[in-house]
Amino acid sequence: MKKSYCPIDTFINTIKGKRKCTIILHLFQGDKRYGELVKLLPDISERMMTKQLKELTEDGLITRTVFAEVPPRVDYSLTALGKEIHPTLKSMFRGGLLFEKSIIRVEN
Known about the structure:
- Helix content is 60%, strand content 13%.
- Strands 1-3-2 form a 3-stranded antiparallel β-sheet.
- The chain is of the alpha+beta class.
- It has helices at 7-15, 20-28, 34-40, 46-58, 80-84, 86-107, and strands spanning 32-33, 62-67, 73-78.
- It has a single domain (7-107), classed as Arc Repressor Mutant, subunit A (Orthogonal Bundle).
- The protein starts with 6 loop residues before the first helix and ends with a helix.
């Protein structure tokens, strides 16, 4: 995570990426295994999912816990920081719904 000139830019630069916000919203509902996240986001490749999870971990928004089992089990969960930004992401979600409604009205 890099600090930008404006805190809004810092926030956006940290959460931008293929479905990062959606990953955070899913993890707010509870810890998820890698396979669960892949099923919840079928429009993202496994390579991209791995990349986004790695970046979210590096930025301190999620934690990755590896269990020494066969087969290996990996769980992802939100950190305190990840939980703290949830209300902002939820508001962005609501804003997206408003925009989608206006798009539907314009298309019809």
